[in-house]
Design goal:
Pathway (chains A, B, C, D, E, F): Amino-acid biosynthesis; L-cysteine biosynthesis; L-cysteine from L-serine: step 1/2
Family (chains A, B, C, D, E, F): Belongs to the transferase hexapeptide repeat family.
Strand content of chain A: 5-15%
Strand order of the largest sheet of chain A: 3-6-9-12-14-15
Number of strands of chain A: 15
Keywords (chains A, B, C, D, E, F): Acyltransferase, Amino-acid biosynthesis, Repeat, Transferase
Helix content of chain A: 40-55%
Oligomer: homohexamer
Order of helices and strands of chain A: HHHHHHHHEEEEEEEEEEEEEEEH
Number of helices of chain A: 9
Structural class of chain A: alpha/beta
Pfam family, one (chains A, B, C, D, E, F): SATase_N
Distance between the termini of chain A: 12 Å
CATH class of the largest domain in chain A: Mainly Alpha
EC number (chains A, B, C, D, E, F): 2.3.1.30
CATH architecture of the largest domain in chain A: Orthogonal Bundle
Number of domains of chain A: 2
Largest sheet of chain A: 6 strands, mixed
Largest interface: A-B, 46 and 50 residues
Radius of gyration of chain A: 19 Å
CATH topology of the largest domain in chain A: serine acetyltransferase, domain 1
Chain lengths: ~280, ~280, ~280, ~280, ~280, ~280
């Protein structure tokens, strides 16, 4: 399914790959040795790497780097599953982004990857009823990465957010596993009433750039939403929709279009889903 | 019209509510006590709270936190009406955003709210013919909040900017009172000639996510622009438009769709405006 | 073609104009004297001005202001042609943006201008096979300016990026000379395969706000892409396209629509290219 | 007694003098306008000036500028007498230092003045049994100003610490009113036993540079300690001591040698105290 | 020998005491919780506590906090004995300083303690022939703590530097174990020739405030140097010297005057050393 | 006179030696490459090196790094002779300090060297009647380096300040050429009257650690002041004084004791000055 090195199946393996990449890179680019040492080489686990790296990005006048670092470290300690989510997301990104050549790149450079990992912390805080702190984190993510994910939203693993600028995910949105979402996408609400009012995205869905999905609608497994679509109604599984408002235009070539990352919807018109 | 606590009718009351919220929050979340004390509890007016909070967000290598703080404080002192605008905007946000549970949230966390308050300062500077300084502020807002509002634009009060990322408002644009605008919206120009070339938005209008409104067009009172619409012509009052390019698709359910925040336009097809 | 002061034909002249503007401005706005002295008046060349100004904007926990300053200065020294590109871009911006009244404004305030100059540095690093460092720069640009240009993309001179928030330019994209691009535009790929997979934009093209151009398609010389269009196929020279998906709707009024900056496409229906 | 402008008798008057000095200075030295505005002109009381100015000097990785500012402001509010002490110290410094030409100089520049005002805060914290916080402040003062005053020490008002580098004042030391102390002076203990073990300095005493006063000894009113003296025994009132160990060498020319600041002790041999 | 809690005999025990002290303190002084968490509670060893704390104090434009942290951590890893030295010094300080009530105080607040631990790092670098880096550290220590210890000097363990401001220790100086040194002391050279030219201090010596010891002289075991003395010749064991130049004035009351910390030398005249 | 590499006779040569040292050092200690590049290798003159290096050390909340850098660069431009003084001081330090092995060390690490170069700037400002700014610089020097030199003092070239902590030089003091001064020294005043009241130090004088020189006294050419001396009267040329108060104890072995750096005064008793 991927012509790259098979994705690591454990966080531990991933960590040792990152250290190797960092050491190799330090040799060829001495300018970066000190930051790679600090963020990767001198760390003792992938969780520590994440905590250090995210806290440097999100530090602000509201919460200092040290306060964030401690908050993240303790959250990871008590919630090891979100570190595994982070591993799955990193592997998904490596698999699906043809411009990505090392695990270090998304980890250190992709604001989509960083935003979703920070959201995972905020989501834990939200579940612990530390609502205000969770919203503060949401605010920092929105200001630093231009990605606005409500901490109450529920998001699976193996998520790839490409480019990410402008992504909005509302309070009652739900995203399954192995979903790929381009930049400028909205999973938005319709109306000022509280209650379940945001989209539900099933496993394997691919959502093209600048697509606007609005309301408590259901996007079926393996569906594909074309770039620039405005989706206001349910989308059945393995169907491609496009247009303003969006209508069915065909079926994705692949059972899981999120792995393929093909934003073009014109060629889907007569296709059938591959196994 | 709102099932939340009635909006405060004065800046002074709002300030005392903020202090109470901050004190309550400090108790439940000690991590935030020091920043809440500094930004809210130890201040003496809502104007001071705004000046402190905005200057921390916008500080940069061009203008330091202290320089901004002084600039904002003195601008508020001589232009008390923009502090009242800020009060109205905060109440509007609290009223219309179902995910918002306290006044502190938009004040401290919503970049739409913060961007528009900083624009209000820049607008005063522009009117005082301090053009370059006003543009510097515009630039800081654009870089920190990804919101680009020209300081010469004219904007009323009771404005709610939801999510806000990517909003663009041009030099000769005009926005009335009680307007709600989602993220990714453009009030843009058409052409490289100077002169009146941007949209005019009337009271009570609701503009959905990623709508592009271009040229010196007039959007009538209580109109609604669907998400993803590209609007190139005038829109009459109490009409819903959608599509690329946008056409009339119905009428909003409500006389002031900005209060309702319903981005869905399919159900508007046969509806009549409620009084 | 432009009713403003004729664009300077050399980097040296531009530099002396900038110094004059800075001195005039320091007089009328003493608050800015110190930053203008530092960034403009005390510098000895336009290259130095660029290096100082960009490094202040892009400084982060990954690369310090000083590290960036040195990197930029040495890159400019060995690649003087990208300083000339920067001159051409600054003149293009001044010419085409009616809201822009001095050369200092785009230089210091426009994140589109700043992003493309930083990209030019990253592109040199990429050609020198310093891939990771180039990607780090791309990441800084994306986080600070919300503009995501892959360092391998090839971009001509005389480029004007208006507002810029959310622009995405992929790895194998190519942009000619004298092109104007609005905010929210994507030059994106289609699929997870490596290889030539992004749009090619010819000279003089104008791309409206939030247009999505996807795949290895060719946009002909002097073509115009309407705001909000989703373009999935080739566009012939001197043709206007619009809609989702985009279709031909007419011809631009002008041979080089990028100079005119008219995003409206409805009036192009029956027009013929001038000149 | 002083050929300078009569010292202000109230904190309020002093504050208005400081504002006037700052405004005059801003005119002649525009480089300093912004810092003078921030620290003096835009403040509303002398207490606020002190809190702002000291917190900027003492900010560190242990306590941030904001944390210190809030701590100082609230301490001044509840202990107005230490603001009056600060007024008296400023007037004393102005009176006795011939190189000092404005009240702004000691306020902003003299680390002796700043150290003693910070000590006054620490002393209040100590009396409130916030021992650790008081010691943290002592540590910050020692690291920033090279002045080490234990927060439990008791110090009167009208104190002038000239140059100040290296001053050490121990836990059970006591200093009266109108005392002048040069740099390098120690009021130190003798032994590792807790208990009353440091010098007691009466009103009007002058202690020359690098004098070492050790143990629970009593220095009488109007006494003078020569530069470089090592004092291990009581000194009677109106007596000059000098040498290692110190012996009586004469009597000060003046009843209050602290006002005269004459470190020379050779001419005191036969003199009698003036009234 | 000490009426305080018996000194911990292992670094591990010390670390757990520090954590307990930090937790207790966080409760009574919430303002400090975040810094205590970061520096103590969330660390995993005393070495890590030292590295974090020292790097925050010494960070500068020459070496960043992160660079120092990494340098210190790796030095401690490869030289565990200097961590044990740090334990011994902390216990010595606790034992001999009557004003010191917890292990946290010297660790976080005493610049003498911090300076000597930073010197221990520099000394390892010097022995590894990283001379310039060692001198850079010496320079940082001198600027931040006003303590100037040459990295080539050799210093034992159980050292207590009280107040510390102005201490100077030259390149070929040697200090034994269990020595106590007050502020303002110089172990200096005589002349511009390279070679062995600084004092050698034996075990158990106590050197009073501002004493100047110059040249390749030997201070015998258990000797005491009075405050303000200028010592230019050898001092035999268990002898007290004082004066300018220093002469023998008696014998310390105690075999190890460094434990007693009595700077007074007048009472030593007829005394005999206690066992 | 010196057994080291002959001192460079021009600032230009010195600059090229510094660049060579920096390049060599960058190779052996990659951790320092970035700071050495920034401060030395990428600079174009010794004046620029000084301005960059000093401004980084002295930056504070009163004057930013950039403000200082610009101030220093412009002062050097208009007063090239103080750059030559800085060259002479650097060579003097290299010559007389046996622990100093490269020109980079005093330049980057010795606070005595840095303090005197910053004083030279302040002195120019004082002569230009920018008194307050000069005093602000004096204050920064005192707080960062623990060296307090009044900007009105007059100081020659070829000055070596060893260790430097605690040095105080008063308003009307004068220091000739080729003088060496140890730490803790005071050139202080006697009394609160304005007027000429501080010591005058002739060429070639050596002043030992912690010596206190007080009043308008004259120290003759080639004289030597012993460590810890308190000097209250004139000292003839080529004489050694010591003690409290200081008396003549002999003659320096060398015509210019400042070159020899011998603080010991006991061996001077019967010696004659060498030619």
């Amino acid at each position: 399914m991927s012509n790259k090195e098979t994705t690591k199946d454990s966080t531990k393996e991933l960590f040792s790959v990152l250290v190797k990449e960092a050491l190799t890179l330090s040799n060829s680019e001495p300018l970066l040795k000190s930051v790679l040492d600090e963020l990767i080489v001198f760390r003792q686990s992938f969780a520590e790497v994440l905590a250090m790296s995210l806290s440097r990005k999100l530090a602000s006048s509201l919460l200092s780097r040290s306060q964030l670092e401690i908050l993240f470290l303790s959250t990871y300690k008590e919630n090891p599953s979100i570190v595994e989510d982070a591993t799955a997301d990193l592997c998904a990104t490596m698999d699906r982004d043809p411009a990505c050549k090392s695990y270090l790149e998304p980890l250190l450079f992709f604001k989509g990857y960083q935003a979703i990992q920070a959201y995972r912390i905020a989501h834990v805080l939200w579940k612990d009823e530390r609502f205000f702190l969770a919203e503060m984190l949401q605010s920092l993510i929105s200001q630093k990465f231009a990605v606005d994910i409500h901490p109450a939203a529920k998001i699976g693993r193996g998520i790839f957010l490409d480019h990410a600028t402008g992504l909005v995910v509302g309070e009652t949105a739900r995203i399954g596993n192995n979903v790929s979402i381009l930049h400028g996408v909205t999973l938005g609400g319709t109306g000022n009433e509280t209650g379940d009012r945001h989209p539900k995205i099933s496993d394997g869905v691919m959502i093209g750039a600048h697509a606007q999905l609005l309301g408590n609608i259901h996007i079926g497994k393996g569906a594909k939403v074309g770039a620039g679509a405005v989706v206001l109604e349910d989308v059945p599984p393995h169907v491609t929709v496009a247009g303003v408002p969006a209508v069915k235009v065909g079926r994705p070539e692949n059972a899981l279009p999120s792995l393929e990352m093909n934003q073009n919807f014109t060629r889907d018109t007569n296709s059938k889903p591959a196994k």
